[in-house]
Amino acid sequence: MENNTVEKIKARIAELPQDVQDAILANDFDERIAKIGQANRLHIDQIGSLGDETMLIMLGFASSEGFTERLQKNLHLYDEQATTITQAVNNEIFLPIRESMKKIHSQEAKKEAPPVATPAPVVVAEPTVAPIVAAAPTPAAKMDAADMMLSQKTVSIPAQKPDTPVTPTPAAPTISNSYKTDPYREPAE
Description:
By secondary structure, this protein is mostly helical. It has 8 helices and no strands. The chain has helices at 3-15, 18-25, 29-39, 44-59, 67-74, 79-94, 98-112, 145-153.
């Protein structure tokens, strides 16, 4: 980290209430984050990102609103998994310092509140490009088993009509094995 960032963090920690300072500087903070991450089967880099996101909220640099969405985006999680992790972080880390955190975030909201002014009218431009519409996938009931397996692994293949005769594919030419031994094999002794 840059020295400027480290200095900002140190200054911010000094401004926080004592219980929040204790929670941030606690020896078991990283262990608690790791425990939450391991319980939710996160990779080590995801656990590090979870710790960073949690720390940003505790320092007051980020709002607790949208925490689940940020976890989902930054840790590449599903909705349910992000919600479960958010609940665990709330119970394990934020709950003991909840009242102090409310004070911190309410003070930050007062500092960041711009003076009341008449908002400029919002003009919404109409899109000039037509939306892309994907072709409808063929129903699975009309596909035979081979087409179904291929479509699951590659792309959708239109099903053939049952009354259409199936034309066999010409067989590939056979290559004769004219040699009896492997030319790259070492001779026997």
